[in-house]
Amino acid sequence: MTDHTLPPHDAPADAARRDFLYLTTGAVAAVGAGITGWSFIDSMNPAADTLALSTTEVNISGIEPGQAILVQWRGKPVFVRRRTTKEIEEAKAVDVATLRDPQADAVRVKEGKEEWLVLVGICTHLGCVPLGTKSAEPKGDFGGWFCPCHGSHYDTAGRIRKGPAPRNLEVPAYSFVSDTVIKIG
Fold first, then answer.
1. Residue 18 — very low, low, confident or very high, per pLDDT cuts 50/70/90?
2. What confidence score (pLDDT) does residue 49 get?
3. Is residue 116 within 8 Å of residue 129, measured between CB atoms?
4. CA distances in angstroms from 15 to 9, 18, 20, 40, listed in the order given
5. Is 150 tagged catalytic?
6. Which helix (H) or strand (E) holds 117?
7. Residue 9: CB partners within 8 Å, gap ≥ 6?
8. Given phi > 0 = left and psi -120 to 50 = alpha, else beta, which region is 128?
9. Using one digit for the tens of pLDDT, what is the confidence trace for 152-178?
10. DSSP character at residue 60
11. Of 9, 125, 150, 153, which one is the catalytic site residue?
């Protein structure tokens, strides 16, 4: 009869080798998971062409009091309106406590530049683009903008005054580069 038993091994050396292989395998797996995770998270960042459109400059020198223009920023419509003195006075005279989304006119415009109103032109109800930028378009019951899809009326500060929209039109981040140029974004 032959003995098929394995020759005796040096147990401490085998254990050290096994521990080294476990640690090395674990470290390689952790680095691989980290690289894969980082690539996945990095893929969620905006594309370079989107980042290039993150700001836009608008020449406002040709806009007369009472007129508005529509520009694109980040693929969204933006209303830039030069308000008349009457429109500013009406917007300031509104009792903020009566508004669904209470905001004073002063927090929706830049100090010293109250005649200029910059708004993202997307209705806060279902994402339609309200009318009122062009002179022939209806401006609603409060002289601002009107969304004909569901009947939301915005005032000359872009605040919701009537209809189903829950919030005011959004004011994007913007600044005055000069007296004739606004930088949005």
1. confident
2. 66
3. no
4. 10, 5, 8, 37
5. yes
6. strand 116-120
7. none
8. beta
9. 999 999 999 999 999 999 999 999 999
10. -
11. 150
